[in-house]
Amino acid sequence: MMGTKQEAQAALFYEFSLEGHIPQDHLLRLIDRFVDLDDTRQYLAEFYSHTGRPSIDPELLIRMLLVGYCFDIRSERRLCEEVHLNLAYRWFCRLKLSDPVPNHSTFSKNRHGRFRESALLRHLFEKTVARCIADGLVSGQRLAADANLIEADANKQNSTPKEDWDHSAVDPNDAPRAVKEYLDVLDDAAFGAASEVEPKFTSHSDSSSQCLS
């Protein structure tokens, strides 16, 4: 006899455990064993006010960012949606089923504010590398970097030949915020170190997009 789902009154109480629903071999379980964010709040203490409403826990934000990096979720808005829906993400972020997920704008404010001013992400990266060295996973003596050549999104027709390019006529104050931040940390001695060939054309939209031929 074919069975049918019985429609009954919804239960008033449910017994549910996130811990029991996350597989033991899940990637986030493996990562969680080595994630140490105990000093995050102390590290950021001076960047928070002693008065006002309680803020979002910075450890929660970092854990959510780790989820985004591990599963290639580049949109902060989508990241918040995925953490809201995915049980494994909630478990890793220490969120109960009833806990709200931070608004996506919170990430932008913290990443461009407290996290950047305090160099928190650099601190966590160096702390992780130091732990890997202490556990014998890496030696800390060599660095390997993988790089890909990406075609510049620059129009050759909207460019200036090198003999007509006058860099002194460019006013850095007119640059947008992202460009200014890039210029602030740019090492002039290292810029273009990959090639000593002088570019024949320089793009108007992106001066780092240069044509060599």
TrEMBL record:
Residues 154-173 are annotated as: Disordered. InterPro entries: Transposase_InsH_N. It holds the Pfam family DUF772. Residues 17-112 form the Transposase InsH N-terminal domain. This is Transposase.
